[in-house]
Amino acid sequence: MNLKVYNTQTKIKEKLNVDGNKKVTMYVCGPTVYNYIHIGNARAFTFFDVVRRYLEHTGFQVTYVQNFTDVDDRLIEESKQTGEAVPVIAEKYIEAYFADMDGMGVKRADIHPRATEHITEMIEAIQVLIEKGYAYEKNGDIYFRTNAKEDYGKLTHQSRTDLKTGVRIEVNEEKEDPTDFALWKNAKPGEISWKSPWGEGRPGWHIECSVMARKYLGDTIDIHAGGIDLCFPHHENEIAQSEAWTDQPFVRYWMHNEYINMGAEKMSKSLGNVKRVVDLRKHYSQAALRYFILSVHYRNPISFTEEVMNQAEESVARMQTAANNLIHRIAFAQSGQMDQALEQELAGFTNRFTEAMNDDFNTANAISVIFDVIKLSNEWVANSVVTRESLGAIQEWLKKHGEDVLGLVHFTTEQHLDSEIEARIAERESARRIRDFKRADEIRDHLQAMGIVLEDTAQGVRWKRK
């Protein structure tokens, strides 16, 4: 397999080389659950969902871990403002995360560990770092000593001077060096805390991912991923503390996706233009949101506008209409031989799709191949003498690539009519048979209000969701 991945650390595309047993370990940094996730968060979770799907599609066994940061400064601040306990807030937004990502077709990770479930392991890791001289205590806070790690900064390729410039110094911090970072924070009065050898406190942000990655995936993991905003300081600090702790390479391939902009502006709280997924799902379909994210290469920024989203809706509608037409046509096609020319044509599309995805997961080019197969499908559906086997081959191709890998085309839409819709359609057919067209129109309008569009064809009534 000639799959090339852009490695943030080396700044080049590298062939994916993992153990010969076809197993891949993958860790993607999850959300800090103090609020609903925004579309920028969703880009990472959706794209790396496709990375995982494609690896599985090509025969790899993927162990996929995505954490929840369920204690940090922002959760504590939210607790102060709302009066709710930190665990209650975290649970609320973890459930909201799953609702959003399930709603966007993102498969759940094999393991979703929470930071607060691994406090003991974090304390143990910090103790090792102290013993090795990589960490030190100041008034109940524990800091990582970056000067002790000669290659600190190797992920972002920044000099120590540049790193110091980008570091924010908190009030009352007593670091040996500005780039040193907290492994353990001494608890302030009223804050959630845990017992430790250094007093009551809680872990710093970075140590949690190192501990959970090692626990579930081992000393060295294949792919570690997240948004480009995590590159520094989070991932840089993860490398330093993990390799100091284990004396082993931490990650083979670092992957980072770019930002989503709101038109020409950066999305930020200060500009008031943050788009939460929970709100966007009320206005746009799951498929359109996925399409928007996947229609641009992950290492390029995306611009979110209403026009772009309308185009996304139109694009996924074309895909789904073609899929529905294919399902409907197969039901009435005669059995026969598979067309050999079609088989060769589909093989060519497979090669093109594979070439796109093997080139650093180029989903934009892969989507172009999907549309070419959609066009082919429409041509074959219109063929009056097409065989069920030929149509079935097209459906199988679209399911494997458009549904299983990209999650954009679905072949279950017409197969799960709920009882109300089924009864309404049957009632409308009865009204039409007795020429009660007024009642038939009322039922049609009622279904349309429910988001169900009816199409009368020679083979009977078909329906689709708006």
TrEMBL record:
It is found in: Cytoplasm. GO terms for molecular function: ATP binding; cysteine-tRNA ligase activity; zinc ion binding. Binds 1 zinc ion per subunit. ATP binds at K269. Residues 352-417 form the Cysteinyl-tRNA synthetase class Ia DALR domain. It is an enzyme of class 6 (ligase). GO terms for cellular component: cytosol. InterPro entries: Cys-tRNA-ligase (IPR015803), Cys-tRNA-synt_Ia_DALR (IPR015273), Cys-tRNA/MSH_ligase (IPR024909), CysS_C (IPR056411), Rossmann-like_a/b/a_fold (IPR014729), tRNA-synt_1_cat_dom (IPR032678), tRNAsynth_Ia_anticodon-bd (IPR009080). Its cofactor is Zn(2+). It catalyses: tRNA(Cys) + L-cysteine + ATP = L-cysteinyl-tRNA(Cys) + AMP + diphosphate. A motif ('HIGH' region) lies at residues 31-41. It holds the Pfam family CysS_C. Keywords: Aminoacyl-tRNA synthetase, ATP-binding, Cytoplasm, Ligase, Metal-binding, Nucleotide-binding, Protein biosynthesis, Zinc. GO terms for biological process: cysteinyl-tRNA aminoacylation. Its EC number is 6.1.1.16. A motif ('KMSKS' region) lies at residues 266-270. Zn(2+) binds at C29, C209, H234, E238. Monomer. Belongs to the class-I aminoacyl-tRNA synthetase family. This is Cysteine--tRNA ligase. The gene is cysS.
